[in-house]
Amino acid sequence: MTTLTTPDRIRAQRTPHRPDSTRAARRAFVAPLIVFLALMSAVPTIFSLVTSLTDYKVGADTPVHFVGLANYVRVVTSPEMLATYGRTFLVVVIALPFELIVGYLIAKVFHRVHELRGSSLIRTVYLLPVMLPEIVVGLLFGYIMNTRVGVLGFLLSAAGLPAPDWLGDPRIAIFSIMMIVVWQWTPLATVILYGGLLGIPGEVREAAALDGAGRIRSVFSLEVPMMRKVIGLIALLAGVQLIGTFATVLVTTQGGPGTTTTVLSYEIYRQAFVFFNTGYGSAIAIITLVIVILLSQLLVRFAFKED
Predict the structure, then answer these.
(1) Are 235 and 299 in contact (CB under 8 A)?
(2) Which pLDDT band, with edges at 50, 70 and 90, does 61 fall under?
(3) How far apart (Å, rounded) are the C-alpha atoms in residues 191 and 12?
(4) Can you give the pLDDT at residue 10?
(5) Please, what is the Cα angle at 234 between 123 and 108, to 5 degrees?
(6) What's the pLDDT tens digit per position in 159-210?
(7) Residue 17 — pLDDT band, cuts 50, 70, 90?
(8) Is residue 121 part of a domain?
(9) Which structural domain, as residue segments, surrounds residue 25?
(10) Domain CATH number, residue 112
(11) Angle in degrees, CA 98, 96, 289, rounded to 5
């Protein structure tokens, strides 16, 4: 006969038995929501996949023809589309590290002063850009960077510096878009990194200090390894957001000058809802979705792998 020890007896008393009927009832309550969310994601994706195999043009009276993979071949062989993919990749490669590095530096400042009075209010105000709609931020910076009435140009002129055409110069327009996006989304990375810094136990920091680890060494040998999953989460969220940049481009440059700020999301919108090449736009969207899924899987495996 098995005798329960005192800890086992206490654990058994604290953990009530849940009958299978209760678990089934809970699953039944959650099931409609899961089905609804699945349909909300699956139906548009399936529609886009089917549409990408046709020459469908929204609003056109012409019959729809099955074209197979012709739209996909057109995407991967078009110099304009390859340039758009490269431009979007450039945005991610430059803006993502910038968000991580600047967000980490500001998170370190917040971590050092987190016990001071008023620090929570400062963090709340700092997070305000994330709460603004992307289209509002785009309109705001459209005025700030305006060559005639823009505040940024006025300040540079007052300092005796030349004021460039931030959104009209083909050489710097894409970097202006990056600047806007980074301004809006870096606070989110900062807050997540700040939470990661708070999660590092003080005893671990003290042990590292006793081992002679300085500030820079502690960053790379202590904080970064312990926050690997946090950094991976930020990279995943920020990367998807950067690939999906749309409203900022729409209200500031409309993809111009020329196509120098045309990124993937804006090109999908342009093909599907401006030129009404719905099948072609759907093919671009499906290829982009596959790329995002593959990159996300690689990032998850790297960041969340077990040691």
Answers:
(1) yes
(2) confident
(3) 39
(4) 45
(5) 40
(6) 988 889 999 999 999 999 999 999 999 999 999 999 999 998 888 888 877 7
(7) low
(8) yes
(9) 6-36
(10) 1.10.3720.10
(11) 170
**94 plus 32 within the same structural domain:** no
Let me know whether 108 and 231 are in one domain: yes
Residues 112 and 244 in one domain: yes
Q: Which residue has the tokens 């749309």?
A: 246
Identify whether residues 27 and 169 lie together within a single domain.
Answer: no
**Residue whose pair of structure tokens reads 């312990």 in the numeric block:** 226
Is pTM beyond 0.90? Reply is no
> Which residues lie below 8 Å from residue 219, measured CB to CB, with a gap of 6+?
none
Question: If you write DSSP's letter for every residue of 180-217 in order, what string do you get?
Answer: HHHHHHHHHHHHHHHHHHHTS-HHHHHHHHHTT--HHH
CA–CA separation, 117 vs 248, rounded Å?
36
Biggest distance spanned by C-alpha atoms of the chain: 90
Overall domain count for the chain: 2
Alpha carbons 154 and 256: distance in angstroms, whole number: 23
Given this model, what pLDDT does residue 11 score? Answer: 47
Q: How many CB atoms lie within 10 A of CB 2?
A: 4
Closest CA to 242 of 94, 120, 130, 101: 94
- Statement to judge: residues 203 and 139 lie in one domain: yes
- Residue 65, domain member (yes or no): no
